[in-house]
Amino acid sequence: MTIALIDRYRSRLPVSDGTPVISLGEGSTPLLPAPRLSERLGVELWLKWEASNPTGSYKDRGMTVAVSRAAEDGAEAVICASTGNTAASAAAYAARAGLPAVVLTPAGAVAGPKVAQARMLGAKVLEVRGDFDHALAAAQELAGRGTHVLVNSINPNRRAGQKTAVFEIVEELGAAPDAFVIPYGGGGNTSAYATGISELGLSTPIFSVEAKHRPTTMASAIRIGDPVHAASVRDSGATVVTVSDDEIVAAWLELASLEGLFCEPSSAAGLAAIRRGDVPGERLAVTITGHGLKDSASADRYAPALAEVDADPDAIAAAARS
Ligand code: F0G
Fold it and tell me: Per the count of CB atoms within 10 A, which of 66, 129, 172, 207 is most buried?
């Protein structure tokens, strides 16, 4: 049977024997070598494929802890603001716990499949007129009234769960990599990785990669103008790297066509920084945070064009060559 993340790392997480384990089989994700990209870039690249978490993003690592603790504490409901992945994850774990979930999204700014996912999973999805920062402020305010438990990464239980990606990478490599490279949206994951590294007694550098034009980037998962964890990212000592949308798209297409990993655009930010030569070191662990099917509109826009052919072998062979 799949081991729940809480059971795998119980001694390092804020849970007790009395905590109900709300799990969908998260964590224990593949750490994949990337032979073609490694050769091209002259490094030893490892890809932590977090899209294989149950809802298709790394958020499930934190959500299992946050929702399990919320259930233990007798929560009546959970709430989050989200660019889409936290929404889907909160909805799934709340459903699993039998708790209602309220999800606030910036109106019109979230990839369609993520909204569909959260709705299917039974969350009350409310589109907030405003951007992610407005939605998060409203969620925090409502949670402050005591009716809903906030399950954004401001919730320390979320970050505690997310640090386990570092444990898995170091366990599987048998040593620390030269650097961890991750996307930077609100910064909760950077802060979580920093904690994981320090709990292992390591001082491995983190490269945290943000979009150059945060409020408008095509990588909608990290379209966050004002990162709520900016201070802790600074204090963590992580190096913040800024990449353009063109660089994100180029890295994203390469991950798919050279390594067979179809992620969402934000997840390619780390590779974009490495391709630019902004990450020193030989052995690099890059976290691929979310699945490409979550943003099918971007794939439709940037993937090689479709062609239509007659059901004729000669026509198909000719079209396949062109
Ligand atoms: N990658 C993906 C796929 C994300 O969904 C997010 C954040 C990040 C990276 C950035 O992580 O915010 O901890 O720095 N998504 C949040 C959400 C904002 O609502 O799903 P971060």
Answer: 66
List the residue whose alpha carbon is closest to atom 19 of ligand 1.
82
77 alpha carbon – ligand 1 mean position (Å): 22
Burial, 23: exposed, middle or buried (Cβ in 10 Å; 0-12, 13-18, 19+)?
buried
How many Å apart are CA 9 and CA 66, to the nearest integer? 14
List of residues 6+ apart from 321 with CB closer than 8 A:
none
What atom of ligand 1 comes closest to residue 188's alpha carbon? 13
Can you list the positions of beta strands (E) in 151-269? 179-183, 206-211, 239-243
pLDDT digits (tens, 9 = 90+) for 296-311: 999 999 999 999 999 9
| Average of per-residue pLDDT across 168-193 | 98
Atom index in ligand 1 nearest the CA of residue 224 equals: 18
Q: What is the pTM of this model?
A: 0.97
Q: Ligand 1: residues within 6 Å at CB?
A: 57, 59, 82-86, 153, 183-190, 221-222, 264, 266-267, 289-290
